[in-house]
TrEMBL record:
Keywords assigned: Copper, Electron transport, Magnesium, Membrane, Metal-binding, Mitochondrion, Mitochondrion inner membrane, Respiratory chain, Translocase, Transmembrane, Transmembrane helix, Transport
Function recorded in the entry: Component of the cytochrome c oxidase, the last enzyme in the mitochondrial electron transport chain which drives oxidative phosphorylation. The respiratory chain contains 3 multisubunit complexes succinate dehydrogenase (complex II, CII), ubiquinol-cytochrome c oxidoreductase (cytochrome b-c1 complex, complex III, CIII) and cytochrome c oxidase (complex IV, CIV), that cooperate to transfer electrons derived from NADH and succinate to molecular oxygen, creating an electrochemical gradient over the inner membrane that drives transmembrane transport and the ATP synthase.
GO terms under biological process: ATP synthesis coupled electron transport
Cofactor: Cu cation
Annotated protein name in UniProt: Cytochrome c oxidase subunit 2
Cytochrome oxidase subunit II transmembrane region profile domain residues: 1-91
Keyword Membrane: yes
Organism the protein comes from: Microphysogobio heterocheilus
Cofactor note: Binds a copper A center.
Top-level taxon of origin: Eukaryota
């Protein structure tokens, strides 16, 4: 999760998020190089009294500054499109979960099980135990098996919501009457926090998302206990 004064992204917990971090660094390096070149040219043009007729009127330079930006855009676009298609790829998910947005909580249905579903409300500040995070903890976590493809069907019952977990590289709008889908694979066990990322009313800030990734054996034990309680 994010830390105070953190400037970068959260640590990646899925292969897609790792790809997004690499692409961010790739694009940022190109931006730094362009900014350095432009700053150097501005300083050089402003500080020198010399002029060069080949700079003022040169066919070759015009070709270079037309072709070079096009090449740079291609170098940014190709990896961007690759990640875009990777994010839309859903191959043989091991588990499907339906996340339904409400004002102002989430409900989850494990559609591969006959009767496994629950509502997930934020824990009020006065009820938090030591070590829990304010405005981020829920009374029921969305538990998933690690290193398994998970498909999440996202919708809403009332207004627009958005199901987002930054460390997993997942953000999908929840639209009433529409069923959107996204997928992720958790590469390690852990607890990953997110929040509704679409303004949805007065308590928009108070509908967090908590995804807990556990080994498959622990997930099976958890699902058995949940089915017994139901």
């Amino acid at each position: 999760m994010a830390h105070p004064s953190q400037l970068g992204f959260q640590d990646a917990a899925s292969p897609v998020m790792e790809e997004l971090l690499h692409f961010h660094d790739h694009a940022l390096m190109i931006v730094f190089l362009i900014s350095t070149l432009v700053l150097y040219i501005i300083i050089a043009m402003a500080s020198t009294k010399l002029t060069n007729k080949y700079i003022l009127d040169s066919q070759e330079i015009e070709i270079v500054w037309t072709v070079l930006p096009a090449v740079i855009l291609v170098l940014i676009a190709l990896p961007s499109l690759r990640i875009l298609y990777l994010m839309d790829e859903i191959n043989d998910p091991h588990l499907t979960i339906k996340a339904m947005g409400h004002q102002w909580y989430w409900s989850y249905e494990y559609t591969d099980y006959e009767d496994l579903g629950f509502d997930s409300y934020m824990i009020p500040t006065q009820d938090l135990t030591p070590g829990q995070f304010r405005l981020l903890e829920t009374d029921h976590r969305m538990v998933v098996p690690m290193e398994s493809p998970i498909r999440v069907l996202v919708s809403a019952e009332d207004v627009l919501h958005s199901w987002a977990v930054p460390s997993l590289g997942v953000k999908m709008d929840a639209v009433p009457g529409r069923l959107n889908q996204t997928a992720f694979i958790t590469s390690r066990p852990g607890v990953f926090y997110g929040q509704c990322s679409e303004i949805c009313g007065a308590n928009h800030s108070f509908m967090p998302i908590v995804v807990e990734a556990v080994p498959l054996e622990h997930f099976e034990n958890w699902s058995s206990l949940m089915l017994e309680d139901a």
